[in-house]
Design goal:
- The chain is of the alpha/beta class and 236 residues long.
- The chain has one domain: Dihydrofolate Reductase, subunit A, CATH 3.40.430.10.
- 25% of the residues lie in helices and 24% in strands.
- The protein is built from seven helices and ten strands.
- The longest helix is centred in the first third of the chain and has 12 residues.
C-alpha cells in the first residue's frame, strides 16, 4: 500500500489571483470545456477533498456530472462518484449541505483527535458519514489524513479547495500536481478569497511547468510542485 495517495490540486483563479469574489454568489471562473475537464479528473479520482469553509460557502455536491463517466465507474466496481472528504477543527457543518445529502458513497470527516467525541456525537450518526481523528493538535494533520486515506485504498486524491487548504498542501510538500486555471476576469477586490493562509512551510521554490494549454478563453497551467525534472515544458 502506498504511503499516501497521489494528490492533485485543482483550482481556477482570476487574472488578479482571486479564486472567488466577496459576494454571497459563487463566481464561476471556468468555462464549460474546462468544467468538463474537471469532471473527467473527478471521475478518475478515488476521493475528492475540500475544506469545511468551502462546504459552508459554496455548498458543493462534489459528484461526477457525466452519466457516461458515472456508468464507467460503476462498471469498474466503483461508486458513481468518488468518496467525499473534508477537514474541520470545529465540526461546524450543516447536515443539510449537499456534501452530506447529494449522491451516495462515503463521506469522511477528518478532525483533530481530541475533538473526535464531540464532533462524532453531532455528525457521526448520519448514514455513510465517518468522523476520523487525524493528529493530536488543534487542527487535523494532513499527513495523517493522507496516510489514513491510503489505508482505505485511496490511490488518487483530488483537492478542490478552498484557498487555505490548497495552501496547506503546498506548504507542507504534500501536493504532487497543481492544475491552475487562469480566467480572463478581473475581480479587483482585496477582500476576495485567494490561495493562502498556511502558517508555515518549506522555503519558496520554483515548480516545474509540465503543460500550458488554452481551453477556450482560459489557460490551464499544470505544475509539478515536487518535480526537479529538466527539459522543455509542453505547450499546446
Amino acid at each position: 500500500m502506498a504511503e499516501r495517495p497521489y494528490v492533485l490540486l485543482s483550482v481556477a483563479m482570476s487574472v488578479d489571483g482571486c479564486i472567488d469574489d466577496a459576494t454571497d454568489t459563487r463566481l464561476i471562473l471556468s468555462n464549460d470545456a474546462d468544467l468538463d475537464r474537471v469532471d473527467e479528473l473527478r471521475a478518475g479520482s478515488d476521493a475528492i477533498l475540500v475544506g469545511a469553509g468551502t462546504i459552508r460557502r459554496d455548498n458543493p455536491a462534489l459528484l461526477v456530472r457525466s452519466a457516461d463517466r458515472r456508468s464507467a465507474r460503476l462498471a469498474r466496481g466503483q461508486t458513481a462518484s468518488p468518496a467525499r472528504v473534508t477537514v474541520t477543527s470545529s465540526g461546524d457543518l450543516d447536515l443539510a449541505a449537499r456534501f452530506f445529502t447529494a449522491g451516495e458513497g462515503p463521506r469522511l470527516i477528518y478532525v483533530p483527535g481530541p475533538a473526535v467525541p464531540g464532533i462524532r456525537d453531532r455528525l457521526g450518526g448520519t448514514a455513510g458519514v465517518q468522523v476520523i481523528g487525524a493528529g493530536d493538535g488543534s487542527q487535523a494533520d494532513l499527513a495523517a489524513v493522507l496516510a489514513d486515506l491510503a489505508a482505505r485504498g485511496v490511490r488518487r486524491l483530488m483537492v478542490e479547495g478552498g484557498g487555505r487548504v490548497l495552501a496547506q498542501f503546498l506548504a507542507e510538500g504534500l501536493a504532487d500536481e497543481l492544475n491552475l486555471v487562469v480566467a480572463p476576469i478581473f475581480v479587483g477586490d482585496p477582500a476576495a478569497p485567494r490561495i493562502g493562509g498556511a502558517s508555515a512551510g518549506p522555503p519558496r521554490r520554483r515548480m516545474h511547468l509540465a503543460e500550458a494549454r488554452l481551453i477556450g478563453d482560459v489557460v490551464l497551467l499544470r505544475y509539478l510542485p515536487g518535480s526537479r525534472a529538466a527539459g522543455t515544458p509542453f505547450f499546446r
